[in-house]
Amino acid sequence: MNADLLLVDGPPSLDDYLALRAAAGLSPKTREQGTMGLRGSWTALHVRHEPSDQTVGMGRVVGDGGWYFHVVDMAVRPSFQRQGIGDAILTHMLAEISQGAPADAYISLLADAPGRPLYGRHGFVETAPRSVGMWLPPQGNAQQTGRQR
Fold this sequence. Notes:
CATH superfamily: Gcn5-related N-acetyltransferase (GNAT)
Order of helices and strands: EHHEEEHEH
Low-confidence stretches: none
CATH architecture: 3-Layer(aba) Sandwich
Mean pLDDT: 92
Largest sheet: 5 strands, mixed
Number of strands: 5
Radius of gyration: 15 Å
Structural class: alpha+beta
């Protein structure tokens, strides 16, 4: 990351969280969902572009703190992608898990195609065919697909 970018412990503001999700192509969330989600983080980080005071990247880990750790909300504003921001966020979060969790903790994530190379560089491997990710679509949205997390 360049010197204009600052890695900040903790989640971004609610407004920045919602805006960054939209800018990065993640599904929109309500203010209530955002508030509860950020509150439920085991750890969270965000990256600020100091000259513009803009949140340009973020990531969170949710889980039980003892065994399960799930990486979520990895997002970088498109105009700031390919500058090492996602790598810095993921590196820092994995270090926090390593320091605060048992050695055999289960660390998982759902990887969209653009993120797979980043996650692979950090040692993540696909679980298929042994297991596959599944989700329960919201009631009335059984046909919903794509980046809907």
